[in-house]
Amino acid sequence: MNWYIKGLKDYVNFNGRARRKEYWMFTLFNIIISVILSLLESVVGLAPFLTTIYSLFILLPSLAVTVRRLHDTGRSGWWILIGLIPFIGGIVLLVFACLDSELKENRFGPNPKWDENFN
């Protein structure tokens, strides 16, 4: 849960790097919350109002953590636009998100995994 809250706090931070753990834990909690809201809406019989509001709320933090994850793999944040290509773009972003971090430091800053483990 700390990774999710960290992602929400850094909602406008498109600089720096995000390790795989930060990205995937943020994504996991996003999915869990979305599923719970969808189930709640279907049980109560509501229109998808709650999930729409949540999706709008989480849009900017999701973009920020994805850009920071791309930075961690040594790519520009502009690579996020490849996700606009149907099917193939999503697969490319998935592969990029799964790749390991670049070593100690790259042009986007120090490796957060290195700082956490060795400082």
Automatic annotation (TrEMBL):
Keywords for this protein: Membrane, Transmembrane, Transmembrane helix
One Pfam family in the UniProt entry: DUF805
Cellular component terms (Gene Ontology): plasma membrane
TM segment ranges: 23-40, 46-66, 78-97
Domain of life of the source: Bacteria
InterPro entries: DUF805 (IPR008523)
Coiled coil location: none
Protein name in the entry: DUF805 domain-containing protein
Species lineage: Bacteria, Bacillati, Bacillota, Bacilli, Bacillales
